[in-house]
Design goal:
The structure is a single chain. It contains eight helices and two strands. The chain has about 240 residues and is mainly alpha-helical.
Length: about 240
């Protein structure tokens, strides 16, 4: 086991992320508290899970537990926040589930999306720990390929579902889909330009800030926007 590593000046962003996720969690808990409708409840439950996981992983990173060092074959030492992958491994499938349930996607499609998503995060994690720059970039390519297939399947699923959705549900689905595509595509860009990619374009300080803004928008922003629409969420999949 590597010696403990202390976070550098990027720690400030990790604390802001921790507080932001805690506030998001409290907001979802507060709003979801008295909800009786079972469909609506499941959306609250998903977003409460997402912010709970993210809060704990941000806390782990801010306090140094979620950080380790990876030594490359050329002797370079990288600070790697492994806790990000633990967060994403569980939260990204849940965020996809929000959209899939809204579109009333079938079980096979949901499993396909989740399978691709887990593969994407797992291969990204391998990339983050690979000891040769070239293999890091190759794993990044594999993970990004999975992301592109995932987005392709998602767009196809959502457009097929559109025919059976109310106008309001379709428009909410579209807004969330566009938000998801833009945000999720930014992750591999930050990764490859940041410390993980070893190309040295973005320092760890800036990279940490960028991931924090993306994480808060993709979790709290996206969830809060979704949960503004109680009437639509109650009527998902037909019925009242
Ligand atoms: C990694 C590794 C490099 C290649 C790709 C990646 C994709 C990450 C994504 C993460 C999404 C996270 C979200 C978090 C919510 O808070 C793992 C960076 C493609 C898409 C939405």
């Amino acid at each position: 086991m590597a010696a403990p590593v202390t976070p550098g000046s990027e720690q400030i962003w990790l604390w802001i992320g921790t507080i932001g996720m805690a506030l998001g969690l409290l907001y979802f808990l507060g709003r979801g508290w008295g909800v009786k409708d079972t469909k609506l409840k499941q959306f609250y439950a998903i977003n409460i899970f997402v912010t709970t996981i993210a809060f704990s992983m941000y806390f782990a990173m801010a306090t140094g537990f979620g950080l380790t060092e990876v030594e490359l074959v050329d002797g370079t030492v990288l600070d790697i926040y492994w806790a990000r992958y633990a967060d994403w491994l569980f939260t990204t499938p849940l965020l996809l589930l929000d959209l899939a349930l809204l579109a009333n996607a079938d079980r096979e499609t949901i499993y396909t999306l989740i399978g691709l998503d887990v593969f994407m995060i797992a291969t990204g994690l391998i990339g983050a720990f690979a000891q040769e720059a070239i293999w890091r970039i190759v794993w990044w390519g594999i993970s990004t390929g999975a992301l592109l297939v995932l987005l392709y399947v998602l767009v196809g699923t959502l457009s097929a579902a559109a025919a059976n959705q109310s106008d309001a549900a379709r428009s909410l689905t579209n807004t969330l889909k566009n938000l998801l595509i833009v945000l999720w595509l930014a992750y591999p860009v930050v990764w490859i330009l940041g410390t993980e990619g070893t190309l040295g374009f973005i320092p760890l300080y800036t990279e940490t800030a960028a991931f924090m803004v993306l994480d808060l928008t993709a979790k709290v922003g996206y969830g809060a926007y979704l949960l503004q629409n109680h009437d639509i969420l109650k009527s998902v999949g037909g019925g009242a």
